[in-house]
C-alpha cells in the first residue's frame, strides 16, 4: 500500500505539469515550451508533499520526471526539437520550484525567496514583441478594399482603427493607405500590399505594372471567393469584392487565377514548415513563356517582372485576424498567433525574417505525444518507487536522506 501511495505521489507532478500546458496548445495550435513555465510552478506543492512524506530525493525524482515528460511531449507533438533557450528557461523554473518546495518546511525564508525567484523566472520567460525596424523604415503602400484601416460600418474619426496585421506591419514599415496607384504616395513606396482591390482603370493598371517593372516589390492577395465576414449589406459599395478583380493584371503577367477548390477553412503546412490558415483559396495556372513559378501546390506564385518582383497568393482571407490570431488584444505577442500568416506577409514584402512557430500538425500527433509522455511518466514513477524504496531500507541512509544536502547532519 505504501508503494502504491509513493507511486501516485511521484506520478502527480508529470500529470499536473503536462496537462497544465495543454489549454494554451489547444487554443492556438502552437507547441511552445513557454506554455509550460507557469504550470511548472505546480512542482512546488508536489515537492513539498513528497519531501514531508517521503524525503527530498523523492521530490527531486518527481521534478526530473516532470521535466522529462514535458520535453518528450513537446518533441513528439511538434515533430521537432525546441530551442536550447526555451529548454533552459523551463528547467530553471522547475528546479527553483522543486528546491523551494523542499526548503519551505525547514527554512521558510529561503523557500519563500526561491518561490519569488521561480515567479520572476516565469515572468522573464515571456516572449518579446516582434522586433522593430529602426527608422527610417521602408515605405509600404497598402491598396485594397478590406477593412484594414477602419472599422466596417462606422463613419468619421471613430472608424479609424488598424487591423492587427497593420499593427504588426508598422513595426517593420512606414505603412501608408493608398486609394489609387495614381496617387503620389506610390512614387516613394518601397513595397506594395495589394489586398483584394476593387476594379482598376486601364491607366491604374499601367501605372501598377510600370511601378513593379521599375524595381517595385508587391505582394498581391487575389481571392476567387472572399469569405471575410462583413456587416455591410450585399450591394454596398463599401463591401469588399467577393471575387478578385485583378484578372487583367494577372493575364498581363502570364497568370490565371483558378476557381476555388474549397470554401471551408483549411490549415495548410508550407514547404518550410510554417502554417497558413486559408478559406476559399484556389491556385494559379501559368501561361507559356511567363517568368513566374508556382509554389505551395499552386497557392502562391513568384514572378520576376522587369527589375521588380511580385509574390502572389490565391487567398486574401489569410490576413483576417480571426484566422491567425487567438487573442485580438495581443497581436504583437507571437504566442497568441494561431498561424504564421503575419510572418509570411512580412517576409513576402521583404520586411525581414520572422521566425516561424512550432505547430501541432494533427490530432494524431497530439494523441501520440500524450500517450508516450504519460507512459514515460508512469514508468519513471514506477522506477522511482522501486529504486528509492530500496535506497531507503537502510536506516542510516534514511536519517541522512531526510535532510537535504545543504543541511548539516550530526553523526549518530
Can you offer a commentary on this structure?
The protein is 41% helix and 13% strand. Strand 9 and strand 10 form a beta hairpin. The relative contact order is 0.14. The protein is elongated. A seven-stranded mixed β-sheet has the order 2-1-3-4-11-10-9. Strands 5-8 form a two-stranded antiparallel ribbon. It has 412 residues and is an alpha/beta fold.
Distance between the termini: 31 Å
Order of helices and strands: HHHHHHEHEHEHEHEEEEEEEHHH
Count helical runs: 13
Which residues form runs of ≥5 with pLDDT under 50? 395-400
- The helix-and-strand class reads alpha/beta
Structure summary, number of beta strands: 11
Q: Give the CA-based shape.
A: elongated
Strand content: 5-15%
What is the residue-mean pLDDT, rounded to a whole number?
Answer: 89
Work out the helicity level: 40-55%
For the biggest sheet, the summary is: 7 strands, mixed
Q: In what order do the strands lie side by side in the largest sheet?
A: 2-1-3-4-11-10-9
Radius of gyration: 28 Å
Could you write a compact summary of the structure shown?
This protein is an alpha/beta fold and 412 residues long. It has helices at residues 2-20, 22-28, 43-53, 56-78, 84-103, 108-124, 164-169, 185-188, 202-213, 247-253, 341-348, 363-391, 395-401; strands at residues 139-144, 174-177, 191-195, 217-221, 255-257, 265-269, 275-279, 284-286, 292-295, 300-305, 308-313.
